[in-house]
Amino acid sequence: MTEWLANPVAWYGAVALIYLLVIIGLLFGGGGLLRKHVLAVALAGIAWSAWFAARAGVPADYRLDSLTFFGELLFILAWFALLYRLLRGPYRQSMPETVRRSLLLFWGLVWLSAAVVAWFVYVGDHDDRAASYFHMIGLSVALVCFGLSAQLNRDAPVENTLTLRALAAAGGVFGAGQALLLGIATLAGSAPPSMIVMRVVAVGAAGLLLLYATRRRPQWSLDIFVSPQARTYLPRLLPMLGVLVVLLALTPLYRSMHVSNAQPLAGLLIALTGAPIAVLIFSENLSARLRVFVSKHFLPFRFDYREEWLRLIDTLASPEQRLPLPERSIKAVAQIIGAPAGLLWWRVNDQQPYRCTANWNTRMWPEFEVHADDPALRFMCDRQWILDTAELRRDPELYDGLQRPPWTEHLPDGLLVVPLISNKELLGFIVLFHSSSAFRLTFEEIDLLRTSGRQVAAHLAQYHGDKQLAEAQQFEAFNRLTAFVMHDLKNLIAQQSLMVKNAAKHKGNPAFFEDAMATIDNSVARMNKLLRQLQSGDATGPTERVTLADALAESIERTENRQPEPQIVAEASGLVANIDRERFTAVIAHLIRNAQEATSADGSVTVRLSADDGAAMIRIEDDGCGMPADFIRNRLFRPFDSTKGSKGMGIGAYQARTFVVASGGSLDVESEPGRGTIVAIRLPIAR
Left if phi > 0, otherwise alpha if psi is -120 to 50, otherwise beta: which for 362? Predict the structure, then answer.
């Protein structure tokens, strides 16, 4: 057993076996969307293990030559590609474009620098200097992989985090092992065998974590990826840049020492500088505490309120936003404190409870309801308070003895409940998830959340109001269509009622019988036409060449049963127009009946037809009560506005003008109270 532990080939063989198991797992249906990336890591791990096993003990210390460096670089690149794919997300939009381009530029510089150094090694004897450059380049890419692993751990969603964080841990262990070895080699010129063993153990542990993640979730699906909302990468990548700068700055000092002293001191330096930074960037708890400490002691204000307000408005109202407004509202509030996910509760009216209506960055969708009389909701509305469940547990006296709401037990810990208040009314609330229970709200965050909640409440109230208005408009259109149908049916019923009333008196008269059959035939034709219009959704009928004098005479026949009887004066009897004959006669008949209703029995109603400047002019004149100008301007042609009470629908004049305008003409009204009315219709003449 001791001999096996002392044998480097056995160590590298164990690592190769681990990555071989990863490949076997992929062959049996694992990997899914990440199959090729995981396969590349596994193949690179086997090749890397085989290369170093073949070179075991030559030399004893770790010192890179050109071939070994490019092998190391390809292995790190495989891990980088896996982390990069995860961070870009399912739609390749999660990573900010600036970061993506910077990483591609970084790798371009890495390969260019490596090629230049390898060329100088090839043309001359610069092995010592080339090894130093190789160590620096390898250290920089290892630190980038370590920083991206921390970013992946930071961006892991609330759900399905175990698998994703296993991958983040694998990348972190791999990057840390490589950075430790290459950092010592950069400072001291080479690394001792003990560091080589530690690096091999780290690579093997990373392979085991990768195997665990692959077997735990054999079929990768989109829901394990990071949020499509961009996070800032600077808190993870800048510390790595700081470590690199510190090590490079101290390299001349360490190179001046003897290698036996430089190597342990280099390891101590990396442990003292790298370990705290690694813990800091991987720990949400410490990161939150550090942000609070810095903002409290070094910055007078944490937020740039102008930028925060512009960001809030842009998130809520920008036309480029793809999410619906409820999801954008959660996102806008969550971005203030960096919350990874959230839920929105809303109620339609005062009589209904609050229900979950939207979620952001989580698949959770609670089915329970929260009633308006809930003590927590009343407390938030009365005090305009942000409910921090972690603070409620720590300091319940701050909340006047309020107990944690029972409905929050169904949700993860670390919740913030932001009330959405408008006009002193709680319209809804947003529940934000937070990964750290140590997170504490400052006065700035409380004020910003409270103000943002009011703005979000106003936007959501308008959003739901617009939806209700759109539904009301749809019902209004349906009711309007129903009213039009009822108006036409009323005219048909009046026609049929008159025929039934006269049937008892004239049933023996053959002429009445023929007239009755013609009336029934006309009514059936009009009803069939009405049904066709309803089925097609087209209110217009077929146009035809109509002799206006004949159509006017037919309209007068429909109204002869009323007093005063209308008279027709056809000054130009041969005028023809392209119109819907049935609708035209119905419109004229309606206007004549209106004139009859406004005129006493001994008055007069006259229909005149004349030619006027290439158009047909139809004038319906009466000497009735007339109408004031204000009524004509504001009410006459307004649909569903009737002066007849329950007897009228208020759409006859509206239908008449709509038909005339659709036919290419115009309809004007001249009237004065007590002096009668003239309705002038102008229609184009058919050529």
Answer: beta
